[in-house]
Input
Amino acid sequence: MSDPTKTSSPHDPNQYFRTDHLEADLKRRSVRSGVVTMSTQIGKFILNMGSTAVLARMLSPADYGLVAMVTTITSFVGNFKDLGLSQATVQRAEINHRQVSTLFWINVGFGAAIMVLVMALSPLIAMFYGDGRLTAIAAALGTGFLVGGLSVQHQSLLKRQMRFGDIAKIDLVSSIIGVVAGILAAIQLPNEYEYWSLVIMQMTVGLVTAVGSWFACGWRPGLPVRGAGIRSMLSFGGYYAGFNVINYFTRNADYILIGKNWGAIELGLYTKAYHLLLLPISQINTPIGAVALPALCRLQDNPERYRSFYRMGVRLMVSLGMPVVAFLLVTAPEVILLLLGEKWLSAVPIFQQLAIPSFLGTFNVATGWVYTSLGRTDRQFQVNVIVSAITVASFAIGVHWGALGVATAFSCCVVITRLPSIIHCYRGTPLELKDLWDAIARPAIAAIGAGLALAVLESRLPELSGQVPLIFVALRLAGLGALYTLFYAAIWFAPPNGKQAVSELWQIRKTLKQKPKSE
Output
């Protein structure tokens, strides 16, 4: 099937907004898009792991903690830049050039306003943490809001057209250029300014992403128009942005509390453990979600196809994510020692404790798919207010015991709130709890079972120390990974559901080999 954004007349005003051509071949397009995006994410994951291993040895935990103090606050403010309008563009059944142009200028205006606000607040951020270096860091990172606002709608149009190959290329290229810029900066800068390499890396990724989005999309905005019919989109986006603001504050309240009460070193250990654990999960969930959400938006009026596609998306996500988290939990000392080095071994208990909410978090975005695709961001906002209050309260209690206490409190909170949140999400939708259970049961059992088997095996191996050669650590980790893969596959394909699992994989293979239908 041809892409109308590439085959239509360049003067066709609807070429960037039509979606009717997607529905006839949605399954094949979604599966292929998922494979392309996932393949690119694997490359990006390897790149991120490699850059982490390099930079963690060049920089100190305090360097990471220093930048985390700023990004915690600036990223929270940055939720207003989008205003939820990117998802509104993707979710809307029909949209036109005047509407998207008006949304574009709203995004740019708010991005510029937030940039000025962050720059004005930078001295207060430095005062809050008691470190004058944060003033310049905050001011520099503030420029990213304007740059990001310039590409919000271009990225949304690419998602709306399900052009995930282009999006994946932009992500990979921007990451490569950003990592190279960060490493070169770390080499060139004096020791006392090495933390600037992390700032330069972030700014470079944002700039390259914006430029790439403009070139790939091809759409150019017109002037904003009064009465363009965007009121319902602003309402949708407002609730979505409200959810993101509250959610971001909740997810980063732990950083603020640890940084304020325990300082940069403790915060550096916590953030690095958290990011290292979530990195592989985000590399899985982000591409699958990017493909699943636009597809679900197109199926919102077809309940049966909606349920089937939802189960397929969730099953794929947890089948990859759950075994990764379980493996990282069991092999935490090897992973930390290999990727970060001996000076980061204090992060191992934090890393292991955060693996519990991360395991449940492998399908956390699946509720967001439902709220957004069905246009019910108002309900998402309402339930998030309650969950966020419980989560922040748990952080406030746990911070008395340092970073490990916060990680433990977060684990307890996620275990308590996860099921009620899902029940609330599915109410009044085509979905039932059985749909979720059918999607996650087999991967969860296989991941936990393989993890227990590997834990028993590793308990018989000698403990690692910082004096062990890295090549030995890498070989040991590779061997454990191979054994875990065998354990996971054996449980996954075991009776009574093994035959069904093989059938599902064969069906995906057949879908990938299908040729596009002509329009």
Q: What stands out?
A: Residues 1-10, 511-519 have pLDDT under 50 and may be disordered.
